[in-house]
Design goal:
The protein starts with a helix and ends with a strand. It is α/β, with parallel strands linked by helices. The strands form five sheets. A seven-stranded mixed beta sheet has the order 9-8-7-10-11-17-14, with helices on both faces. Strands 1-2-4-5 form a four-stranded mixed beta sheet, with helices on one face. Strands 3-6 form a two-stranded parallel ribbon. 37% of the residues are buried. It is globular and about 55 Å long. Helix 3 runs parallel beside helix 7. It is built from eleven helices and 17 strands. It catalyses: carboxy-S-adenosyl-L-methionine + 5-hydroxyuridine(34) in tRNA = 5-carboxymethoxyuridine(34) in tRNA + S-adenosyl-L-homocysteine + H(+).
């Protein structure tokens, strides 16, 4: 059983005590009724990890916990073997006592594109909606955030996050948490200084409603950082793919950047700007030792890499930043 009590205390410290009106009951319901059938097996893998203390931690320029010299060869082999039982590892990379977890996505490249354009995170309360295994949570904390909360209903990702967190020094780890929740499980807190949502919008059946749910978590004057798939075109252009897009079956709406900005404007956001557009490369998303299934190379037309196998434009991503009115 997960004990979220220390996190509840941290919420009170950070001025988010009103979340405790609903969160503990929501988490009890999850504990009792919504746990994944494999969760106990994944937890056993974490419990068997060697007890090690890192001599150094770097979460500002990467996510590296400990030095290779902090663990002997047997301990490193145990880490490698046990964490491989938590595959696929999609978001990262992580370095744990010299064990390099080479994830499917080079999430550090995404962070490098996003970070120069956002408001200084120092002292801010941050929410990451759809955070995956939590790679960016650590980078947000490394950038100076006071409290970082990630939500993602995929319990394998939560387990991967916990595997990393157990090695992070307590004074840092207490400020970072991942909850197995979706945005629909959140009350409108209107309390976070920055809300990130990266790689989520196109998975939602109702993108406008989803954007409103994101805004409902922001305090007045707060900043939304949105990264998503886009296409070329004017403010009326939106791709609604068929059964699959790049072999993904849960892609509903892919707007142009102009359409996306128009949506945010209709929702009342201000200072809306597109700060980056980037065609996803085969070097950024690929099969690795830690993610052995199909990846981007398998999802593109082999005779024309500018198209998916279904004939749609190949994945292109944009970062849009906007401010909630005061």
């Amino acid at each position: 059983m997960y004990d979220f009590t220390p996190f509840y205390a941290r919420l009170t410290e950070s001025g988010l005590g009103h979340w405790l009106e609903t969160l503990p009951a929501r988490m009890r319901h999850w504990q009792q009724h919504q746990q994944h059938g494999e969760l106990k097996k994944w937890q056993r893998s974490i419990a068997q990890l060697p007890r090690l203390t890192p001599s150094s931690v770097d979460i500002s320029s990467q996510v590296r916990i400990g030095e290779a010299s902090d663990a002997n060869d047997g301990e490193k082999a145990r880490i490698q073997g046990l964490l491989s039982q938590l595959m696929p590892w999609r978001k990262g990379p992580f370095d744990l006592f010299g064990v390099h977890i080479d994830t499917e996505w080079r999430s550090d490249w995404k962070w490098d594109r996003v970070f120069p354009h956002i408001s200084d995170l120092s002292g801010r309360r941050v929410l990451d909606i759809g955070c995956g295994s939590g790679y960016h949570l650590w980078r947000m904390k490394g950038a100076g955030a006071d409290l970082v909360v990630g939500i993602d209903p995929t319990q394998l990702f939560m387990t991967q996050f916990q595997a990393i967190k157990q090695y992070v020094p307590a004074d840092t780890a207490r400020d970072v948490e991942l909850l197995p929740l979706g945005i629909e499980d959140m009350q409108p807190l209107q309390a976070f200084d920055t809300v990130f949502t990266m790689g989520v919008l196109y998975h939602r059946r109702s993108p406008i409603d989803f954007l409103q749910q994101c805004l409902d978590q922001l305090k007045p004057g707060g900043e939304l950082v949105l990264e998503t798939l886009v296409i070329d075109g004017d403010e009326q252009r939106v791709l609604v793919p068929g059964e699959r897009y790049a072999q993904m079956g849960n892609v509903w709406f892919i707007p142009s950047t102009k359409a996306l900005c128009h949506w945010l404007e209709r929702l009342g956001m201000q200072n809306i700007r597109v700060v980056d557009e980037n065609v996803t490369s085969l070097e950024e998303q690929r099969q690795t030792e830690w993610m052995q299934g199909q990846s981007l190379a398998d999802f593109l037309d082999p005779s024309d890499r500018s198209l998916t196998v279904e004939g749609y434009p190949a994945p292109k991503r944009a970062v849009v930043i906007a401010t909630k009115p005061r």
